[in-house]
Specification:
Layout lengths: L16 H31 L2 H4 L6 H29 L9 H19 L4 H18 L9 E6 L26 H11 L2 E5 L2 H11 L3 E6 L1 H11 L4 E5 L14 H11 L5 H13 L22 H6 L1
Parallel strand pairs: 1-2, 1-3, 3-4
Length: about 300
């Protein structure tokens, strides 16, 4: 197998291997508790009215019990299929719809349960994003580049930049002082779409306009989790941004993480073109990176000595 044919390494998309395992364990644990809670509620729905249903019809308790049993089997199927999907890395038990159950049912219930157990929303959302990525990867689908959208948050743009990129990403001057320059280079090499959104409304409008088959989204835990829910059933692969200056201010993202995701999802028939563009990009002369703006105030002028003023 040649070097170019090797499966791209996605391990560095998260911080480290132990962090990914911890997030999976949190999600699996909360999913187990949620499934048991649902089963307990369903059992109570049958046990409580059991003695009253016999007065309606002799078969009423058995029919109601069968209905509750079907619901319990459905919960068990979705839970078991989800866990096997995570552990095996592929779809099992006809679990193609499990990602929808995870997004629409398990996440809201897990958030409520986690809050009751004192687990932060940030940890729950990070675990959900990690598992969602596993489910998207397990589908093993690939797409032409023009059907993939890179959706970025506006906080990647340098806060002191005057360029408006929300409506036209090509307004960027490519000064290299924020990650946008590198992301534009990625779009030129891979041929995917790139857009910046300032919020959920604009993000939904961009999705409607571009009509992608897959979204590779960069954002914080909250925005990614909400975006995955809003765009379902459209698959979203989430990449967490880095926040060295705090939330929503001059954030950044690993270019290697974005490229690794694209390598995984782009149709292999386009790899030859991509490699050729990479060679051409490497031959281009590199523009010198601009120096950061100097925002330190000018030193105040020194006061004249009293003796000099008197002589004047």
């Amino acid at each position: 197998m040649s070097e170019n044919d090797k499966e791209p390494n996605l391990d560095h998309i998260d911080e480290d291997a132990s962090g990914r395992v911890a997030r999976k364990r949190l999600f699996i644990g909360l999913t187990c508790a949620t499934a048991l809670f649902l089963v307990a509620c369903l059992v109570l729905l049958w046990v409580i009215p059991y003695y009253g249903l016999t007065n309606i019809h002799p078969w009423a308790p058995a029919l109601f019990g069968a209905f509750v049993g079907v619901l319990i089997l459905a919960v068990g199927w979705s839970f078991g299929g989800l866990i096997l999907n995570i552990l095996l890395g592929r779809s099992v038990l006809y679990s193609g719809r499990i990602r929808g159950l995870t997004i629409k049912l398990f996440l809201p219930l897990m958030t409520l349960l986690g809050r009751a157990l004192g687990i932060s929303k940030k940890d729950i959302r990070a675990s959900f994003i990690n598992v969602n990525n596993e489910l998207v990867l397990s589908e093993a689908k690939t797409y032409p580049p023009e059907k993939i959208l890179l959706l970025m948050p506006h906080c990647l743009q340098m806060s002191r930049c005057d360029m408006r990129l929300t409506y036209d990403i090509n307004n960027c001057k490519r000064c290299g002082m924020c990650p946008i320059k590198g992301l534009l280079e990625i779009t030129e090499i891979y041929g995917v779409h790139l857009a910046i959104a300032t919020g959920g409304t604009i993000a939904r409008r961009i999705v409607v306009q571009k009509r992608p088959k897959l979204i590779v989204a960069v954002a914080c835990e909250r925005d990614l989790a909400e975006g995955i829910q809003d765009t379902y059933p459209l698959p979203v692969f989430g990449v967490l941004n880095e926040r060295p200056h705090g939330p929503c201010l001059d954030t950044t993202v690993s270019r290697e993480s974005v490229e690794a995701a694209l390598e995984r999802f782009i149709d292999p028939s386009f790899q030859a073109q991509i490699q050729e563009r990479k060679v051409q990009a490497a031959r281009k002369p590199k523009k010198p990176r601009l120096k950061p703006l100097d925002i330190t105030p000018d030193p105040a002028p020194a006061a004249e000595p009293a003796q000099a003023r008197s002589e004047a």
